Amino acid sequence: MNDTVNRQILLVKRPSGMPYESDFRLIQSPLPSPDEGEVLIQTRYLSVDSSMRIRMNDRNTVAPPYALDAVVPGGAVGTVLSSRSPLLDTGDYVAGMFAWEDYSVASAKNIRKINPDLAPVSTALGVLGIPGLTAYFGLLEIGRPQPGETVVISAAAGAVGTVAGQIAKLKGCRVVGIAGSHRKVRYMLDELGFDAGINYKNPADIRASLARACRDGVDIYFDSVGGEISDAVVALINDYARTVLCGQIALDNTREIHLGLRCQALLHRRAALIQGFRIAQYADRFDEARGQLAEWLTAGKLKASEHIVEGLENTPKAFLGLFRGENVGKQLVRVC
Amino acid sequence: MNDTVNRQILLVKRPSGMPYESDFRLIQSPLPSPDEGEVLIQTRYLSVDSSMRIRMNDRNTVAPPYALDAVVPGGAVGTVLSSRSPLLDTGDYVAGMFAWEDYSVASAKNIRKINPDLAPVSTALGVLGIPGLTAYFGLLEIGRPQPGETVVISAAAGAVGTVAGQIAKLKGCRVVGIAGSHRKVRYMLDELGFDAGINYKNPADIRASLARACRDGVDIYFDSVGGEISDAVVALINDYARTVLCGQIALDNTREIHLGLRCQALLHRRAALIQGFRIAQYADRFDEARGQLAEWLTAGKLKASEHIVEGLENTPKAFLGLFRGENVGKQLVRVC
User: Fold this and answer.
1) d(CA B137, CA B292)
2) Please, is B207 exposed, middle or buried when counting C-beta atoms within 10 Å of its C-beta (0-12, 13-18, 19+)?
3) In a mutagenesis test of the A interface, which of B257, B268, B275, B279 is the best target, namely the one with the most A β-carbons within 10 Å?
4) pLDDT value at B253 more than 70
5) Which residues of A touch B63 (CB under 8 A)?
6) Looking at beta carbons, which residues of chain B come within 8 Å of A267?
7) A5-126+304-334 CATH choice from 3.30.70.890, 3.90.180.10, 3.20.20.70, 3.30.365.10
8) Chain B environment of A276 (Cβ under 8 Å)
9) Out of B248, B257, B269, whose CB is closest to A61?
10) Shortest CA distance from B259: residue in chain A
11) Which pLDDT tens digit goes with each residue over B301-320?
12) Is residue B251 pLDDT above 60, yes or no?
């Protein structure tokens, strides 16, 4: 790699439905240089996340769409190569919203310094990053797990699901994970200690499999998927059940109207709740959550599930892989 | 009326879909007599409520089904004719879960004594009864109204909706009521001071009417209806919107699977909430709520909307009328 060249990945076409590699292009640019208050960062790990898909549309939804023919923004961990800010020094490990590129320039005040001795730096994008925080606040604040309750997790082998399920286990719950392959189910059972796992692609009847796995009904549904899987789970909710709406990956790539089971009648009968949230709502408690998650991680009570692809040039491939269900745990790209 | 005869209305057939008068039968029985700890009550007002429909099915849902060929249970206000309990005296006004009959015997400890000087006794079944409490806790605890917010209420001219809308006004909200006739819309606007009203049977396009009435979107949806009306409202929810699931009358009479808009994707994008509840969850705060509602009532800030049908024999007719949208406010039967 020539260190005076900055490889960057641009979004060159807005996907319609599933994204393709041809929606992205790798270009070579000159090394950027930091202004006053900024730092130059060398990317170490890049995060790819299914929630990025929605910002590739031209509609303004949760956040403004990504610009076309511009570098794709993305969470990343890197090291400071040069600093023009008193807040950060050369050599510091940092995490922040950088971009799909070898080198980024960013304002020091939007950057979080991380301690490489506390945990592997890649965890700043997973267990100790947005996915971990999402699992933590979604499960604990909306799900409010009680010992003995049954927690169903969709996309359970993903970046958020692996953490949510492990926290639910730490809280004394029975955890049933739903994922899209036998390999993922085995991982949840063997590596994460979940109580039951369902491969939604395998059983002829997801409803029957779920009913068998949730003989006492469902108290908490931590949902990152939506669609028919959710219809099946909602049918099993108990009185006062809580559904944490973490994502709706089943719907991100469709432009269809979401027709299916209207859940309201069941929610009404069960006096149950469904709630969406934004992680920014809990921003003033991120430190508290990171402290707790790091403590569990260090004590070996929480496993950092990561799926790492090598090379910046493979970032689009890693992103597409999310929708084919290739990753177990947090999908990362190791850049250097 | 012969006062040694007790007219009683039985459920003789479980309705399939919409109930009919032929599902009920009026019989004459001897006057019941109270045992130790019980009182004999002469019914003054009977409550009929759409939520009773679901208990006419043979499935166990929120509560066990009503028995067939037995008197229909129902909320009522009456006077104590004779008492075998130290808790109540002859002449006391009482409210409780009695039945569709002229005279009831009930255990004194399940009966609430009411003060006829505080408010007309019929309000014990409406504003100061379960409908008022449902509006109070649903709106305030789940809806959490803030001044300036837009509150949409379905079945807005009903027993609960009229109270929920008035409380929302008292909390400084903009209130948009949805009801099924021009007369009801006029009532909401002229008598209850709602800001906008929509007759869902009239506009060709409920979505367009709603969008015009809710130019700033919807912050709270107090929903007693469900179905397509709810689909239209959910499409307009703002960030952090709350939907209070009070009832799903649109679905009570159908056995179809509730196919329609899956709301989860929108809830996720808007970080919004839908929550069902049972009024019993708030039982330890009923006195507080009744005190506040009575205060508003006495101060003229809250209007008791009542729709009164005369004669026990017309109770089934009054009940069926609920599903034809005949009532404005709480539907009551004056028995004597």
Assistant:
1) 12
2) middle
3) B268
4) no
5) none
6) 245, 274-276
7) 3.90.180.10
8) 267-273
9) B269
10) A261
11) 999 999 999 999 999 999 99
12) no
Interface test with B, best of A245, A266, A278 (most B CBs within 10 A): A245
Distances in Å between the alpha carbon of B146 and those of A197, B210, B319? 43, 20, 35
- Residue B1 has which token pair? 């009326």
Residue found by looking up tokens 């990343």 in the block: A76
The superfamily in CATH containing domain A131-280 is NAD(P)-binding Rossmann-like Domain (3.40.50.720)
Residue B62's pLDDT is: 67
Question: If DSSP codes are grouped into helix, strand and coil, which group holds residue A290?
Answer: helix
pLDDT of the residue at B254: 53
pLDDT over 90 at B185, yes or no: yes
Residues of A with CB under 8 A from a CB of B: 61-62, 223, 226-227, 230-231, 245-248, 251, 257-265, 267-278, 281
How many whole angstroms separate alpha carbon B170 and alpha carbon B175?
Answer: 10
- Integer-rounded Cα Rg, in Å, for chain B is 20
On the CB side of B265, CA atoms within 13 Å amount to: 22
Domains of chain A by residue range: 5-126+304-334, 131-280
Share above pLDDT 90 across residues of chain B, in percent, rounded to a whole number: 82
In chain A, which residue's Cα lies nearest the Cα of B224?
A268
Q: Could you give the ipTM of this predicted complex?
A: 0.87
Can you give the pLDDT at residue A1? 44
Fold assignment, B130-280? Rossmann fold (3.40.50)
What is the amino acid identity at position A54?
I
Q: What is the pTM of this model?
A: 0.90
CATH class as words, domain B5-123+304-334: alpha beta
| Residue B1: pLDDT over 50 | no
Residue A3: per-residue pLDDT:
57
